[in-house]
Amino acid sequence: MKKFWSAIAVALLVTGCGGKGFMGGNRASVEQRDPFEKQETAKSKEADAAQEDKEFQILKEQEELKAKLAAQQAQAEKDAAAAKAKEDDAKAAGKKPAAGGTDEGENPLVAPLPATTLTEQALKESATAMNDPSNPLSRRSIYFGYDSIGVEGDYQQVVEAHAKFLTDHPQVKLRLEGNTDIRGSREYNLALGQRRADTVKRALTLLGVAPEQVESVSFGEEKPRAMGDGEDAHQENRRVDMVYTGLESVQ
Amino acid sequence: MVVAASLPAVASAGGRQVSRFGLSKFLQVVWIAAALLCGFSATARAQLTIEIIGGGQAQLPVTILPFAGEDRFEGRLSEIVAADLIRSGLFKLGAPGDVRPYPSDAAEIKFGYWKEKGDQTLVVGKINPRPDGKLEVRFRMFDVAKQAQIAGYSYAVTVPQLRATAHKIADVIYEKLTGEPGVFSTRIAYVAKTAERYELHIADADGFNSQFILAHREPIMSPTWSPDGAQIAYVSFERRKSIVFVHNLKDGTRKVLANFDGSNSAPAWHPDGKRLAVALTRDGSSQIYLVNGDGSGIQRLTHTTSIDTEPSFSPDGRTLLFTSDRGGSPQIYRMAAGGGDAERMTFEGSYNTSPRFSPDGKSFAYVQRASGRFNVAIMDLSSKQSLTLTDTPLDESPTFAPNGKLILYSSVVENRGTLAAVSSDGSIKQRYSAKAPDVREPAWGPLPGNRQ
User: Cβ contact (<8 Å) for B34 and A24?
Assistant: First the structure.
């Protein structure tokens, strides 16, 4: 898609239809905004470059992670082999397991069993759970009814999963982006989207999430995910998106 | 009653007589903008074109003859004047007659001929080079029956100012014949969405000379002109959240007016030009605040837990209209500009939003939902009677022309945003279309006299 538009842009430039050509009137203002335009392109190039860098970084990290995992697996196999060898040695030495005998007297010897101290540690949800479709953390949109701000049905479960994740990982930040369908007043919808985002934020903080961890904003009807004016599109657009930052610190 | 004529405004090749007679006979006129010169470079510019859909009742007859010397310039002056008047829906343009060369000054007019032909008002003019390199545009307007001049002006202008001069002449004719100021020399702002970005545009009221003053990848909404036309306040999402900016049109500088936690939106200028009302969610749900033009002195005006937004000041600055869902559904309320008790204004239907005071303060435009459609309506404040003005499904963002005669609004046609205008009595409709994928959020600027 992007390529398509840039092809059009190139075609326009080639045919000399770039813009200034048919901007009649106020030449001064046209020139005035030129630097801005350049700045924009520079910025977008910068953004593209940043994006590429980021993608490269992610690829690199994935490679490193793979190598690490392979090394760990090799070590585990080695350890298992060593343990087995030790056990075999013990068997060969003819060592018998200790057992109480009746020949030792009337009073049975009661040997205290050493307490097995089991330390239990809850495993925290890892960031990879975010992409596991069977995990509620993978659901990062909460949908709403028309003109409604209530978190309904199994979305409560989704909110709870994210609340747990956030309390487990206080260094992670969450941005809640409220959206509405495209019908009605843009300004009213902006306020409505904000209210939806705030409702989700309140639900999270009630579940123990620190308010500073969550920022709620609204795009109102300005950034519809689904185009068109059918009910399906409207439903898709009435939602709060959860956008995480700082996830790279979670492993 | 289909398309009568197309007037290539810049490429003025041929078709002159056709268009002139067409103008006099038909109401439906399509303007093809300069953008056509460049083929269908759809994404390149958001140049607007205007189509008249319905006509007014009684139309005022006026005959505008080609100005002597106008052929040497792109965009014939007399055609721009005629197109302005036609678009208002209030005028009936007369045929130019058989006199050659066209009379261009008082002494050349044989009133008997024009009287015989049935003309009532005749406009003639000429463009002459001046020694200083500028052009002199002279025009005179006559009452044919009385053989008397109604108005006559001379302008010293440069070539790029010819369009503006034509609009000025159209304003004079409009005012002389209707008694109301014309709005042909005003400007409009609107937001264009292209495949890549959002652009805030300023254009002449006829859609020409459109140029953007801000462009980025995130949405822009709610532009609104300061009373003197020197600044525009708007909401920009360039920092991934809604922030209100005030943009100086002269030097292109801008400053943040409101950037608090949550949403910052719905700027509305106080008529004094020094303060603005805004909607903020910094204290909970959306509430209305008053803030100085530099962002200082913030003062909360509503105190509810509901959504209060879209403030609009009365022209005397004493009253605020706004949207609130305090009654369970979004409705329009009125309160004193300093805050206090609010009176509910709309009762019909479960969704009434986006109030805008008319320039005379006697009525307000708003958006009402009925049978699943969103339409622009107008309510008279003394009788509380309302009138639905539009009939397309998703109409929004009404904004008054500074003379109160037209209301510009946005509409959606085939999933694409477009602009349209309707007269405040609903009789005349115009549709603007742009060579851009999507235009919305119009704001009509003030009369030039208000500019500094």
Answer: yes
